[in-house]
From TrEMBL, chain A:
Name used for this protein in its record: Eukaryotic translation initiation factor 3 subunit F
Pfam families xref list: Beta-prop_EMC1_N, EMC1_C, JAB, MitMem_reg
One GO biological process term: protein folding in endoplasmic reticulum
All copies of domain MPN, residue ranges: 7-137
Record key words, sorted: Cytoplasm, Endoplasmic reticulum, Glycoprotein, Initiation factor, Membrane, Protein biosynthesis, Signal, Transmembrane, Transmembrane helix
Main location: cytoplasm
UniProt organism field: Dimorphilus gyrociliatus
Record-level Gene Ontology MF annotations: metallopeptidase activity; translation initiation factor activity; translation initiation factor binding
InterPro entries xref list: Beta-prop_EMC1_1st, eIF3f, EIF3F/CSN6-like_C, EMC1, EMC1_C, JAMM/MPN+_dom, MPN, PQQ_b-propeller_rpt
TM ranges: 1201-1222
UniProtKB/TrEMBL annotation, chain B:
Segments crossing the lipid bilayer: 6-25, 148-170
Organism expressing this protein natively: Dimorphilus gyrociliatus
Annotated GO CC locations: EMC complex
Keyword Glycoprotein belongs to the record: no
A GO molecular-function annotation: carbohydrate binding
Family, similarity comment: Belongs to the EMC7 family.
Residue ranges, annotated region (Disordered): 203-223
Protein name: DgyrCDS5762
Any one Pfam family match given in the protein's UniProt record, by short name: EMC7_beta-sandw
Major location (coarse): membrane
Topological relation to the membrane, as annotated: Single-pass membrane protein
Length: 1232, 223
């Protein structure tokens, strides 16, 4: 009867028993307790238990029955269905005392079960034995109990099983710590298990059917049960169910993650501006670019304007008053602005070779109309306004002529001309009809006229008088065409209105002797005047066309530009002359050529402005009868100036800044006082006494300078605001501030002009023009490298910067060395000429004796040069340990070199070579890690870039590893020699791809490479510390979106090289972690913040074509962001993965100060660890400070000093007053 | 059960949208023109127009606004284009436009995560500014109520009130309360009964306890 009892024990009970045994007090040898569970007929399920304290000695046993009852009552409240079913004890035997205890439990339940658990682990087994006690003795008087053994099953519920499995994993781990696996992993593991179990079953069934095994009916029955329990579903149905459930789950997870991340970002990560901080430490400058088309416009409601169109395809209106942008429209990047035509109230822009013709209103720059003339144009387009009163625009492009109505923008007629390969083509407005004039490369000049309704008025073919057309230069002068055949230096004239034949212009002998060789076109189409000048420098003859005759007005050696304007219906000529840093605008009567001396004006013209290129003049009579003149000057250095009579040059725009090529931010020198202070510690050869004396002297001196300083300051405040020149001369302004936030931005531009810009105000403090020089150009990628060779840290040595340029005509290079703070050029103003063309320039990280870090230059014959030459010794010292590489984009071959000393020469010996297969792909980017003085640049023949490898790593990396949630450390792979190369190409299936390679520059090892299929460039990439992040455009499945991929490299859990990294001793495979994110929008430039010590978190700065600059915390671009957050990842603070990167408006650091066509972003550390200085450049400049981890090292600017001091003083006052009161009270009490 | 149905519907939508999207989007030689209009409902002046531009595919094609906010972008081959309205002050919803080689237009909301999901919007596009962009963080304003209800101040003020005001409420002149307080004091300071160690030492050294004097001085001190 008793053996029919089934006993099931849950694992929790056993754990409980073992646990209570482990925690028992010293004294009792064993532990006993009550078992709780459910009795269902003959099945006893033991689900829980608790320990009961007891005391055993040789002859008696005491059980705390009160405790047991109390405990049971408590358990009853939690799980009312559980009853007492028996008791347990540890040990492997039933002792004499067991009877007594059993008897007690017999009172508690009907048939108590006794379980012994052998916790002493005899034979390494924990024996569990169940007993049922039955009383023996004579009826009515029991004498003893017989314990009959019982079989015990250990059963577990699903949850218990999972927990049990998890816990049992810890068995094999050294630290006995396991984490709960995520649901997904659990599911995966379970399905794996099911699979193996199914296999087992299959195996068994197979064996049975093959009669290898005897069938077991029990197994058969449970198999049948199993099959019946599975619902009948087709595979697809099953799939959809699982998938939809899965999708729901993923959606929930995704939404949860999204919310979490969003909250976290808002709260912690993003440093966001307050509204009152606008403009406090940021500034923006908007530019237009190299101006090609300009005209005054007086019709506007909002004052006079200059309408300009630039080579950068920008149309803008500048106010005459101060040169600010009234409006600006940026046209397509790739479609060149061909012509700008000026109507009364609108400006017409023809761009992209006639692809677009757009009219904008002059007042506000709204679009009036837009026509699309042809979709795939060739060459450039020209246009003209014709038709007298009813203004129409004619456009000529690709041997076709269109006429567009200016009020509606409708195309009125189109004519297709006979195809001609034109050398020169022009539309000329000839009295209410338009004349097309085409001079082909071979054959005769073709002249056709159309009236406003599109009917052909005249057609002529005129014989060309010149011998060769390849050196032909033509301009239009109202209805005339003037051509210059430079070989014979003869001018020919043709009137398009009455074309008969070309006429040769005969010049006077004196003019002929001046070697004039270029034509100067006045673009006002007012009078028939043109200039004949020297191709460079000054000297111009003014020639007037009168009917079919020409008249030479005069010649002057100083004239550089000329223009023509109307004053009281009289035409006047304006000329610009530059002499001894002075510009003079002189005016002449058009009819007579006599000078109007009353109008002459002059002002200072610094030599860096070079020569004025073009003039536009506006002259009018004021109400009081005086004549007012405004001259708009476009000069060779791309600057735009407004010259007003009696006012001088009122404003100047430096359009060269719209094309910055390299930027450095240079620390300012310390102030005089501080420098002396440092000087005090400088030398060590003094004894105590002399040191003391020196200290006294310096302090006296300091006091003296301080007094002077104060008095100077006082006298200065009485004077008015200081100008730019004063700022640069003021010794206090250009000194380092407390946090080193004040720096000098040194920029090189494509127009061979260098600028020194104050980073606080954006003011230009100095500028230098390099003459006879050109930028390095390699298949459209241009560069003008800038190196800071000596920083300001080496007082009293001044800082030194060097720009390297190519000679304009010879195969030589120009090294221009200057002081980056003051802009003073060292040596001659033309720089130092070197007889080689560098293919690679690198700045060494070692310094000479005078603290100059020399440049190492490799020329095309692989010879090594050093600049300055004194630096050769430093290079020789480190020869054989200096490595560099070149990348040739024309062959896709990367070459590594080692600098070696051969006799007394230095040569670059090849050390490695990597071929990136030119026939498959093109190299698009090469990015090395940043060293403190950035030194990657273009060379002449090969491509951008170079880097000199040394052992020291200059970008400060604060932490060598990442501490994970389980307290272990992942060490970063900090290879300073690593550089990234990105390529793009098209694979065999015709699909485009991009690839990324990480290459060690010393050994040539390709450490990592990856390919993204169906992806397009342009790729933007940043490379810092141990990670790269890049943006590409995914076009998978014909759907497009931008994606950001991030690769982080780790050495693993052990550090291989704690002191210094060496590329040669790498004998392990680093770990690569990658992840990609969706980015909504495009990225035009990308950079990463740098800070002084690298402690602060990094931020990835992205410039978007929408004009915003987005600063994303690097944390968002962490490849370890988990799909499902685990306890460890949460502890570490890793954000959960969400596919799309957030684009918060709060993270847009330039708020509404949109900047367009951003080409680069330069970041520099400030003295404050929390702060990184950022300059974005492109068409516009924007400068700001970023605090990626917020401002943690200084008090916030909104810190309430008043409040805190008020509280403190209040406290002091209160304490004094109360003291008084209390003492008085104590006194009065004492008298009582 | 209900959940299942929803997920079925979801799956259905997904499949359906996929089928739609698989339509031909090849590149023909024909060029098309996207048209639309921009509204900024909450301003009256037209200042915003000159700073607003339409950029397609990150700036490959541009559209400029007329004075009524209308725009058109021409010269587009068939394909799928993302359309963004850029303005420094207002937020606009981006859109995607698919143009088939037959010249059929379909505008839909931009969805970068599920590229195939379609929720169509009207074509020609009518894009309305959603709101003014807020780039800035709100500065915390100092207010007297914040200050008063801050836990620190409450912690300081309440005990002060207790100390200053409560003794006033109890009539200290009443002999009964005085006695009560006295007894309370005595109860609260058991020190009287336990001699301090230092006193014990002094007693020991000066020879003999001086209990009576001690008990007399103590209460006077307290007063």
């Amino acid at each position: 009867m008793a053996s029919a009892l089934e006993v099931k024990v849950h694992p929790l009970v056993l754990f409980n028993i073992v646990d209570s045994y482990e925690r028992r007090s010293e004294d009792p040898k064993r532990v006993i307790g009550t078992l709780l569970g459910i009795v269902d007929k003959n099945v006893v399920e033991i689900t829980n238990c608790f320990t009961v304290p007891h005391n055993e000695s040789a002859d008696e046993v005491a059980v705390d029955i009160e405790y047991a009852k109390g405990m049971f009552d408590l358990y009853k409240r939690v799980t009312p269905w559980e009853t007492v079913v028996g008791w347990y004890s540890t040990g492997n035997e039933v002792t004499a005392h067991s009877r007594l205890i059993h008897e007690y439990y017999s009172l508690e339940c009907k048939q108590p079960i006794h379980i012994t658990v052998d916790t002493s682990l005899k034979n390494n087994r924990m024996n569990i034995q169940g007993y049922i006690g039955s009383a023996v003795g004579i009826s009515g008087k029991a004498q003893g109990v017989i314990f009959t053994p019982l079989d015990i099953d250990i059963v577990a519920q699903d949850a218990e099983r999972v927990a049990f499995h998890t816990i049992s994993q810890a068995k094999s781990l050294p630290r006995k710590v396991v984490s709960v696996r995520s649901d997904m992993e659990q599911v995966a593991k379970a399905s794996e298990q099911i699979e193996t179990m199914l296999e087992k079953v299959e195996d068994y069934v197979d064996k049975v059917t093959k009669k290898e095994l005897e069938a077991n009916p029990k197994v058969g029955r449970s198999l049948l049960e199993l099959i019946n329990s599975v619902p009948k579903l087709s595979a697809e149905e099953f799939d959809t169910i699982v998938n939809s459930n899965m999708k729901d789950l993923l959606m929930v997870v995704y939404l949860a993650n999204l919310t979490k991340t969003q909250l976290m970002l808002k709260e912690k990560l993003i440093h966001c501006l307050y509204e009152d901080q606008v403009g406090k430490f940021d500034w923006r400058q908007q530019y237009i670019g190299k101006v090609q088309f300009a005209a005054f416009n007086q019709a506007g409601q909002f004052g006079k304007k200059v309408i300009v169109g630039s080579e950068e395809n920008v149309i803008a209106a500048l106010t005459v008053k101060n040169g600010e942008l009234s409006w600006r429209q940026i046209l397509e990047n790739d479609d060149r602005l061909d012509t700008v035509l000026h109507l009364e109230t609108a400006v017409v822009a023809i761009s992209g070779g006639g692809k677009f013709v757009r009219a904008f209103t002059i007042n506000q720059g709204f679009l009036l109309w837009e026509v699309n003339l042809q979709s795939e144009p060739e060459g450039t387009a020209t246009g003209v306004i014709y038709g007298g009163r009813s203004e129409k625009v004619a456009v000529l492009a690709n041997n076709r002529v269109w006429s567009v109505d200016t009020s509606t923008g409708r195309v009125q007629w189109t004519k297709t001309l006979t195809p001609l390969k034109s050398k020169f083509q022009k539309l000329i407005n000839t009295d209410s009809s338009v004349t097309v004039l085409r001079i082909p490369s071979s054959g005769d000049t073709d002249v056709i006229s159309y009236s406003t309704d599109g009917s052909r008025v005249a057609e002529n073919t005129i014989k060309n008088p010149w011998m060769k057309t390849d050196s032909l230069e033509c301009i239009t002068v109202t209805t005339n065409v003037v051509c210059l055949e430079s070989e014979k230096s003869r001018l020919y004239l043709l009137n398009a209105a009455k074309p008969h034949s070309y006429k040769e212009i005969v010049l006077s002998a004196s003019t002929c002797s001046k070697n004039l060789n270029a034509l100067f076109e006045t673009r006002e189409s007012l009078g028939s005047l043109f200039g004949f000048k020297k191709s460079s420098g000054s000297g111009m003859a003014l020639i007037k066309i009168d009917g079919d005759k020409t008249k030479e007005l005069f010649y002057s050696d100083n004239i550089v530009a000329t223009s023509i304007t109307k004053l009281n219906n009289e035409l006047i000529i304006a000329t610009a002359t530059v002499e001894n840093q002075e510009i003079k605008i002189r005016f002449f009567e058009y009819e007579t050529g006599n000078e109007i001396t009353s109008l002459q004006m002059s002002d200072i013209w610094p030599s860096y402005r070079k020569y004025p290129n073009e003039l536009r003049v506006l002259a009018f009579k004021k109400k009081d009868g005086t004549t007012s003149v405004r001259v708009f000057i476009i000069s060779d250095d791309l600057s735009l100036s407004m010259f007003i009579k009696n006012g001088g040059i009122t404003w100047t725009r430096e359009e060269a800044l719209s094309n910055i090529l390299s930027v450095e931010m240079v620390d300012l020198p310390v102030s005089q006082i501080q420098a002396e202070m440092e000087d005090e510690f400088g030398s060590s050869g003094y004894n105590l006494a002399s040191m003391f004396v020196k200290r006294l002297i310096t302090q006296l001196h300091q006091f003296g300078t301080w007094i002077l300083h104060i008095s100077a300051k006082l006298s200065k405040t009485s004077g008015s605001n200081s100008g730019r020149a004063e700022l640069i001369n003021d010794p206090d302004y250009l000194t380092r501030d407390d946090f080193n936030l004040h720096k000098m931005i040194v920029a090189t531009t494509a127009s061979m002009k260098l600028f020194g810009i104050d980073n606080l105000s954006g003011q230009i403090l100095w500028q230098i023009s390099i003459t006879n020089a050109e930028v390095f150009d390699h298949s459209g990628k241009i560069a003008l490298p800038l190196y800071i060779q000596r920083t300001t840290a080496h007082f009293p040595h001044p800082p030194v910067a060097t720009v390297v340029a190519r000679h304009a005509t010879k195969a030589q290079s120009i090294f221009m060395t200057f002081n980056p703070i003051t802009g003073e050029i060292q040596g001659s103003n033309d720089g130092v000429l070197m007889n080689y063309v560098p293919i690679q320039i690198t700045q060494l990280q070692f310094v000479q004796e005078d603290y100059i870090a020399p440049l190492v230059i490799i020329d095309s014959s692989k010879m090594v040069h050093v600049y300055p030459t004194e630096g050769k010794n430093v290079v020789k010292e480190h020869a054989n340990n200096l490595f560099t590489y070149t990348v040739d984009t024309t062959t896709n071959i990367l070459n590594g070199y080692v600098i070696m000393q051969e006799d007394s020469y230095l040569v670059a010996a090849p050390s490695w070579r990597v071929d990136l297969m030119k026939n498959e792909q093109n190299i698009t980017n090469i990015v090395a890690k940043r060293s403190i003085g950035t030194n990657y640049y273009l060379r002449y023949q090969e491509i951008p870039f170079s880097y000199m490898f040394t052992v020291s790593f200059l970008e400060h990396v604060h932490s060598q590893g990442v501490v994970l949630g389980d307290r272990s450390v992942m060490y970063k792979y900090l290879n300073p020699n690593l550089f990234a190369v990105t390529t793009s190409g098209v694979d065999q299936q015709g699909k485009s791809f991009i690839s990324v390679y990480l290459i060690d520059g010393v050994t040539g090892n390709v450490v990592y490479s990856t390919t993204h299929k169906s992806a397009l460039g342009p790729v933007q990439i940043v490379h810092s510390e141990n990670w790269i992040a890049y943006v590409y455009y995914s076009v998978k499945n014909r759907q497009k979106r931008s994606e950001v991929a991030v690769v982080e490299i780790f050495e693993g859990k052990e550090q291989n090289n704690a002191t210094a990294f060496s590329s040669f001793s790498v004998n392990y495979q680093p770990m690569f972690m990658t992840q990609a994110y969706i980015f909504s929008g495009h990225v035009s430039a990308m950079a990463v913040t740098v800070t002084e010590k690298g402690i602060t978190n990094k931020e990835v700065i992205m410039a978007l074509p929408t004009g915003s600059i987005l600063a994303l915390p690097k944390m968002l671009l962490d490849p370890r962001r988990p799909l499902v957050p685990t306890a460890e990842s949460q502890e570490e603070g890793v954000l959960p993965y969400i596919p799309e990167l957030p684009k918060l408006f709060e993270a847009m650091v330039n708020y509404n100060q949109s900047v367009y066509r951003v080409k680069g972003i330069h970041t520099a550390p400030a003295g404050l660890e929390s702060t990184s200085l950022v300059l974005t450049y492109g068409l516009d400049l924007f400068y700001t400070r970023l605090m990626p981890s917020k401002m943690y090292d200084v008090l916030k600017e909104d810190f309430d000093y008043f409040f805190i001091s008020a509280v403190v003083t209040g406290m002091i006052v209160v304490s004094v007053v109360t003291q008084k009161f209390s003492s008085r009270k104590a006194l009065s009490r004492a008298w009582k | 059960m209900n959940e299942n149905r929803i997920s079925y519907i979801l799956v259905f939508i997904y499949v359906f949208s996929y089928v739609i999207c698989d339509g031909e989007l090849g590149s023909g030689s024909e060029r098309f023109k996207i048209e639309g209009k921009i509204f900024v409902p909450f301003v009256n002046d037209l200042e915003w127009i000159s700073s607003t531009k339409i950029i397609i595919d990150g700036g490959r094609y541009l559209g400029f606004l007329k004075s009524d906010g209308a725009f058109s972008v021409s010269n587009l081959p068939s394909g799928s284009y993302s359309i963004e309205v850029i303005n420094p002050s207002y937020v606009f919803e981006p859109a995607r436009i698919d143009i088939t080689s037959k010249g059929k237009f379909r505008a839909r909301k931009m969805n970068n995560i599920q590229l195939n999901a379609v929720s169509t919007i009207n074509y020609p596009l009518k894009l309305k500014a959603r709101s003014r962009i807020n780039y800035f963080q709100e500065r915390e304003k100092w207010s007297i109520t914040d200050m008063i209800f801050s836990p620190m101040v409450l912690m300081m003020v309440l005990p002060l009130i207790m100390v200053m005001v409560l003794p006033k409420l109890i009539n200290a002149q009443d002999p009964e309360t005085q006695r009560e307080m006295q007894s309370q004091m005595n109860f609260l300071t058991p020190k009287n009964n336990i001699p301090e160690f230092s006193e014990f030492l002094t007693n020991l050294l000066s020879g003999g306890p001086k209990k009576p004097s001690q008990s007399r001085t103590k209460p006077s001190k307290r007063r």
